[in-house]
Amino acid sequence: MLGRINHIAIAVPDLTAAAMPYRNLGAKVSEPQPLPEHGAAVVFVELENTKVELLQPLGENSPISAFLEKNPSGGMHHICYEVADILVARDRAVALGLRVLGDGTPKIGAHGKPVLFLHPKDFSGTLTELEQI
Ligand code: CO
Question: Which residue from 61, 75, 109, 128 has the fewest beta carbons nearer than 10 Å?
Fold first, then answer.
């Protein structure tokens, strides 16, 4: 059910500072993009086989803010895996006893595709996103 890694997301307190080493190491790095509906501003680091997304909180009630309070200098926020069918993936996760965050209804993620998040306690402390591709 798990396909390729779509992206790895890293919460950061300062997008410009966080993007610098990736740019200096020759990666393709986007300009910061505000995603107000997701409470974050994002820099995309495009690699040959996946993307790294640097996430800075944007606005109040950002889902990134609480993470940065616990990890002030930033840290890995989640890994996103591609799935062929988000509802099939959800039902399989639930049947396995994995905890789906929220009410289990897929939301439209930062790439315009349906996503769900699975509880970090079921993945060795790593928040896990599923994205239908
Ligand atoms: Co994500």
Answer: 61
Q: What is the pLDDT of residues 57-99, one digit of tens each?
A: 998 889 899 999 999 999 999 999 999 999 999 999 999 999 9
Tell me the sheet residues that pair with 44: 53
pTM, 2 dp: 0.94
Residue 123, domain extent: 5-132
Q: How far is the CA of 8 from the centre of ligand 1 (A)?
A: 7
Contacts of 28 (CB under 8 A, 6+ apart): 45, 46, 47
> In the chain, how many domains are there?
1
| Catalytic residue selected from 46, 53, 60, 129 | 129
Taking the centre of ligand 1 as the mean of its atom positions, its distance from the CA of residue 113, in whole angstroms, is: 11
- CATH at 25: 3.10.180.10
What is the 3 CA–ligand 1 centroid distance (Å)? 15
